Amino acid sequence: MIYNILNLIDVKQYKKNNELFKKLKAILESHEIIPYEKKVVLFNIIKNLNVGNIALEKKKRTNWLLQGHLYSELAKNCMEEYKKLTVESFSKAE
What is the DSSP string of 52-89? Predict the structure, then answer.
């Protein structure tokens, strides 16, 4: 995904934001960070990007969409942990 985006950006813009792209690439290629943490880190980077002026309503909708996606990921991880703990507690009870 990031490589497709990099191909769309012109060379001047890439040189300006080279640091940002190095960070993104390092995060995506890192084997030390679990996928969930990668998503959170990338979310925070994207959230703090300055993309120019956006209409207030569009900005609010975008923020709600991004937050909803993040909360969805959090809920999935919490349910997985809940299931693991439930299985462990039932297996100990027997």
Answer: ----HHHHHHHHHHHHHHHHHHHHHHHHHHHHHHHHHH
